[in-house]
TrEMBL record:
Annotated protein name in UniProt: Carbon-monoxide dehydrogenase large subunit
Region span, Disordered: 1-20
Region forming the signal peptide: none
The organism's place on the tree of life at top rank: Bacteria
Gene Ontology terms, MF aspect: iron ion binding; oxidoreductase activity
Gene3D superfamilies reported for this sequence: Aldehyde oxidase/xanthine dehydrogenase, a/b hammerhead (3.90.1170.50), Aldehyde oxidase/xanthine dehydrogenase, molybdopterin binding domain (3.30.365.10)
Keywords: Molybdenum, Oxidoreductase
Domain Aldehyde oxidase/xanthine dehydrogenase a/b hammerhead: 24-144
InterPro entries, per the entry: Ald_Oxase/Xan_DH_a/b (IPR000674), Ald_Oxase/Xan_DH_a/b_sf (IPR036856), Ald_Oxase/xanthine_DH-like (IPR016208), AldOxase/xan_DH_MoCoBD1 (IPR008274), AldOxase/xan_DH_MoCoBD2 (IPR046867), AldOxase/xan_DH_Mopterin-bd_sf (IPR037165)
Keyword Lyase: no
Amino acid sequence: MDPSLQKFGIGQPVPRSEDPVLVKGHGRYTDDINLAGQAHAWIVRSPVAHGVLNGIDVEAAREAPGVLGVWTGADLEAAGYGPLKCAAPMKNSDGSAMRKPERPALARDRVRWVGDPVAVVVARTVAEAREAADLVALDIDPLPAVTDAGAAAADGAPQLYDDVPGNLVLDFHYGDAGKTAAAFAEAAHVVAMRLVSNRIIVSAMEPRSAIGEFTGGRWVLHVGSQGVFGLRAGMAEIMGVPAKELRVLTSNVGGSFGMKAPPYPEYVAVLHAARELGVPVKWTDERSGSFLSDTHGRDHVAEAELALAADGRFLAVRIRNFADMGAYLTTPGPLMATTNIIKNVPSVYATPLLEVTTRCMVTNTTPIGAYRGAGRPEGNFIMERLIERAAAEMGIDRVELRRRNMIRPDQIPFTAASEMVYDSGDFAAVMETALETADWDGYAARQTESQARGRLRGRGIGCYLEVTAPANKEMGGLRFEEDGTVTIITGTLDYGQGHATPFAQILADRLGIPFEQIRLLQGDSDEMQAGGGTGGSRSVTNSGQAIHEASIQVVDKGRALAAHLLEAAEADIEFAAGRFVIAGTDRAIGIMEMAARLRSRPALPAGVPDSLDVSHVSDGAPSAFPNGCHVVEVEIDPETGTVEILRYNSVNDFGTIVNPLLVEGQVHGGVVQGIGQALMERVVYDESGQLLTGSYMDYAIPRAPDLPTIGFRSHPVPARSNPLGTKGCGEAGCAGALGSVMNAVADALAQAGVDHIDMPATPSRIWAALQAAKAA
C-alpha cells in the first residue's frame, strides 16, 4: 500500500490541518472582515420583558453625529420582509396544527423579552452607532411577565399572544396511552421523578457577527453559520426573494453548538440597511448582548416514570414534560422537547412501551434553540436517572439492572419503542468495558479513603444511545484544480469540528489522492447545489457518503479516460490506491498524473471525459446510533457542598472512526459541556423578566481546574446504514456526561440522607440539601 495512505487514510489520528493557522491567530472570523466603505450597526433592544410598544422616537438618534440611518419594525414591514419562521411541522395531540406566533425581525406592537430587538442604528463607526442608539426613546407600557413554563400554564398567567390561549403553542403526545397505563397498572414497582434540564447560555467563543452587502442587484451576507445553503434558503424566504438573489459566505466560526444555525433578526436588519445606504453594514454583538440575543438551550421539566416487573424488567416509560420555548419559536422550535426526547429516551434498553406528553409554552425569556445534543442528552439523562432510582428502591444492583434490560446483539436490528430501528451495537460489551476501565470493583477502597478524610464519595454510570439527525441531501463535489490540488465541495460546515482533515482522509482512502493536496470548500452558498449544514452529529456520515459516492463517479470517468490513454478496453481497467491499471500488466497511470494531462486540454475522442470533476448530490444517510457508557466518581465536601470529579472514564461506539484524535477531542468537549450543565450552569430571571445571570460574573462555566482527566476508549461496531460505517460523535459527550455525573452526585449524597438534587448541583444547593437532611 502507498505509505501516504497508511499515514493519512481512514482510522489514522491525523492532526487538524487548520490548527497551525488558528493557533497563530490567523483565522478569519466574521468580525475580522472589513469591507471598503462599510458602516456599523447597533441594535436597540427592549429593556422590558413584556409590554405594549406604543411608539419609537428615533429623531434624536437620526440627528446624532455620524448616523447614516435608523430603522424600526414598521420600516422593515413596509419593505415587505416576512417573519422569522419555525420549521417544525408538529401537530397537537388532537391532530390540529401547532400555533406559530408571528415573529417580526424588529418588534412592532409588543415586546416579549428583555433583548427583543426594536430598532437598528447605522453610523460611520461602532462608537457613533452605539451612542446614537442610546438616544432612541421607547414608549412601552409594561405588562406582567412570566419566565417559567409551568407558571405560564397556570390560570391567570400573563398572556404573551392574543392568538395563543394559555401560552400553549403545542400540546404534543406520543405513544399508546391505554397500553402504557395498563403496563403501569400491572407493574410490580413504579419509580417516579421530577427531573429538571436547566436553561443554558450557549457561550460560543465567538459572538455572533454579520455584514450585509447589496451589490449587483443581490444581497451578500457574511456571517458565522452552521451551513450556508440552508441559511440562504431561510434568509431568502424572509427577504422575499429567490435564493439566487442572496449569497451567504461563512469563514472561520468560533463555536456554535446549534445556536448559529438559524436566521436571526440582526441579519435582516443589516441586509436592509445595506440596500438602503448602498454601503456594506457590519454588526458584531458584545458578550452582554449575546447573553440576551443568542438562543438559549434546554429548559425542560419532566415528570418521568418507569414501570418494572418484579425481576426488574422494564415494562414502560411515561413522561409528562413542560418545555419552555422562550418568547418566540425558533427554527427547530419544539423538536428538542418532543421528537428528540422520544427518539433518545429508550437508549440501549429493550423497553416495550413509551408515552411522552409535552406542553410547549411561550414565556418572556430569550427564545430556546438547539444546543449540543438538542434533546438527545435530555432523553438519555431521564432514562439513566430513572434506572438509578429503580435500582435503589428495588434493591437490585445498578449494573445488574442495566444488564437485564439491555438490547442484545442477537436482537439487532431492533425496533425500539421510539419506532427507530437500531442497525448495530453491542451495548452490554460497551458497558462491561467501561466498568473494567473505571476499576469498578476497586471502588470500595477509594470510598473508604474518602470517608477517612470526611468526604462523601459517589460513583455513577451513564449509558447512552443517540439517534443522529435523519438523512438530508448533501453535496459531494470534487474539483481537480489548475494548481494540482483537489477541492472537496460539501454543504456541511466546520464551526470547530475540523472537517478538512477527516474529509481529506476519506478522499485519500477512496481515490489515493495525496492528503496534502486536498482542500475543502464549505462556506460559499454560490458553490452549493445542496447542503444540510452541520448539526445532529451527521457531518462525517452525510458528507462522507457524498464524498464516497462522488469518488465512485470519478473512478468511472477515470476508467474511461485511462482506457483511451493506455490504449486498452475499459473493461480491463482496474483502479486501486490511486492508480488505473490494465489488469494483469504493469501498465498504469496515476489519478493525479491523469488530472495533470487533462489540464493541458488534450484532444479526446467523443465519449471520453475531458475532466475528472464531479458535482454530485447524495440523498444522505439515515440516522445512526452512536452509544456508550461513561463512569464517573465524585467527591463532595459536606462542609462547603463543593463537588470534585475525581475519575471520568468513557467507552464509546462511534462505528468506523475516521480520525481517532478528532473524535476524542469531540468527546472531551461534549463531556465538559455536560459537566457544566450538571454542576454549575443555570440561567436565572427575576420575576419581572430581567436576566440575573447576564455575564460571566454571574453565570459559571467550567474552567480547567474544574475538570478531570477524561478517559476515552472505543468499542466500535460499524453502522450498516452507510458505506463508511460511521455513527457520529459530536454531541455524545453531553449525552454520557449528564447521567453519569448526576448519578455520581446522587450516590454520594444518598450516604447523607439526600434522596434527590436537581441540576445544576451547585455547592450552595448541595450544602442546603445536606443541612436539610441533617435537620430531618
